[in-house]
Specification:
With 352 residues, the chain is an alpha/beta fold. It has one domain: Rossmann fold (3-Layer(aba) Sandwich), CATH 3.40.50.12710. It has 11 helices and 16 strands. The strands form 3 sheets. Strands 2, 3, 4, 5, 10, 14, 15 and 16 form an 8-stranded mixed beta sheet that branches. Helix 4 packs across helix 5. The protein is globular.
Length: 352
């Protein structure tokens, strides 16, 4: 298994032999090493995702899946999760779906051996995939992508006094550092940004858009839906959102590759356009607060509090962390891609 030290040596050799590498290549290599060797979730990890905060999050996803499946009248549906972490979300969602009479086959798209082991402890009957290409084609897919698209490679472009260049990563006396690439990149940047001030940064995730488009084509052909929940924005114009997390604190993106989690904000407008081009119907995005509220999280929190009065403060704190505007309620967004033949999804009645 490659360690961060091994990765740093490999990146240095590559840069010395071929010159600076695109930010996207650096991010892909760093996150590949990071997730292959880490369990990054929880208090002892580097960050906490919504499913790890409370079972309520996964339960709301389970309700969403079961409701959509019921109204679609499909006989069989496969549950698919992209980057399922420890399997916490899936375990809560599948338990909830079973209580509502639905028992899908579970498929995980996961490459990390560390995380696969943890997922297998929770859902031993799941089927694992290295990529989306091997997902089943015999029935509709309900696909859940929670904090998945933010960790895919992002390309960045920087405006210099000589025009736009792809942002790259070099290596020098002070370690890894961002540098402008040598070739003009005006054709990769929207025309209205061509006259932006020097230092402006434009970023995009071709890998994420390609996956969104491919999955939209799949669900358009065979039925189903994709639910994406992530932190991000709409109508992105320009700005650097690439960040690193380590031990629940921000870290230097260009230090210790493979030891930090690298992410960027998801452009939901672009992701929705990719899905639309794939033939899917797009609903949302809406705030996570609105989505979870529509699915009934307030009632579920109240019920849990009644059944576990000794955990009332814990349950209330988790509810507020997931839904409050100053916490995860607004920064995180939810969007659905659906087969044109499938019914409207719950949770997207009003765009907020």
């Amino acid at each position: 298994m490659q360690t961060p030290a091994d990765l740093a040596e490999a990146l240095i050799r590559r840069i010395e032999e071929r010159g600076p590498i695109p930010v996207a290549d650096y991010m892909e290599a760093a996150n590949g090493c990071y997730y292959a060797s880490h369990d990054p979730f929880g208090v002892k990890g580097d960050f906490i995702t919504s499913p790890e905060i409370s079972q309520m999050f996964g339960e709301m996803i389970g309700i969403w899946c079961a409701d959509l499946w019921t109204r679609s009248r499909a006989r069989t549906v496969h549950y698919v999760e992209l980057g399922p972490g420890r399997g916490t979300l899936a375990a809560d969602a599948i338990r909830t779906m079973a209580a509502l009479g639905h028992h899908p086959q579970v498929h995980f798209v996961e490459t990390s051996p560390v995380l696969r082991k943890l997922q297998k402890e929770r859902l031993p009957d799941a089927i694992w995939h290295d990529g989306i290409e091997t997902l089943p084609t015999d029935a509709p897919l309900i696909i859940v992508a929670n904090e998945f698209f933010d960790a895919l490679p992002y390309r960045q472009y920087i405006k210099t006094y000589s025009g736009w260049r792809e942002r790259a990563v070099g290596y020098g006396d002070e370690g890894f550092a961002p540098v402008p690439g040598p070739s003009p990149a005006e054709d990769r940047v929207p025309e209205h940004l061509h006259d932006a001030v020097a230092g402006s940064i434009y970023e995009t995730s071709p890998a994420g858009l390609a996956i969104g488009n491919a999955l939209a084509r799949r669900i358009t052909r065979q039925g189903g839906a994709l639910l994406a929940i992530d932190y991000g924005h709409e109508n992105y114009d320009a700005g650097d959102t690439l960040q690193a997390l380590n031990a629940h604190a921000y870290a230097d993106v260009f230090s210790n590759p493979g030891a930090n989690d690298l992410t960027a904000h998801v452009d939901f407008t672009a992701l929705g356009q990719a899905g639309h081009l794939g033939g899917a119907r797009i609903e949302g995005p809406v705030s996570q607060s609105y989505f979870l509220g529509t699915m009934g999280i307030a009632a579920r929190a109240a019920a849990l509090g009644r059944h576990h009065p000794d955990r009332g403060d814990e349950i209330g704190a988790a509810y507020h962390r997931l839904t409050d505007e100053e916490e995860m309620g607004t920064l995180f967004r939810a969007m659905a891609m659906l087969s044109p033949k499938w019914p409207k999804a719950a949770g997207f009645e009003v765009t907020v």
